Amino acid sequence: MKDQLSKLLPFYKFATGHVSVGIHAVDITGKTIIYNEKMKEIEGLDSVDVVDRSILDLFQFEQQESTLLKVLHSEKPVLRVKQTYWNRNGQEITTINDTYPISK
Fold this sequence. Notes:
- There is one protein chain.
- With about 100 residues, this protein is an alpha+beta fold.
- The protein has one domain (about 1-100): 2-Layer Sandwich (Beta-Lactamase), CATH 3.30.450.
- Helices cover about 40% and strands about 25% of the residues.
- It contains five helices and five strands; from the N terminus they run αββαααβαββ.
- The chain has helices at about 1-20, 35-45, 45-50, 55-60, 65-75; strands spanning about 25, 30-35, 60, 80-85, 90-100.
- The protein is globular, with a radius of gyration of 14 Å.
- The two termini are about 15 Å apart.
């Protein structure tokens, strides 16, 4: 199984780097594990600033909870949700999110 994953890793890196949508994946603690190029453009942060950091350290959510955190707690998809939040540099970001739980 581990050998299969190591063979697929280059494909996953290529795919997440070339899609036209932002991908921001977190682990069960809310720490960033995937942050693709498009998400960097949308949120104005660099991968080195976000990887292995909690989204609560990186972003401020005022009127609603992060869709990433909501899905972590509910384990149910949240689709087509407009969300406005601020990055740690104070830049306002508005997105329409589809957020899915992924489990083993």
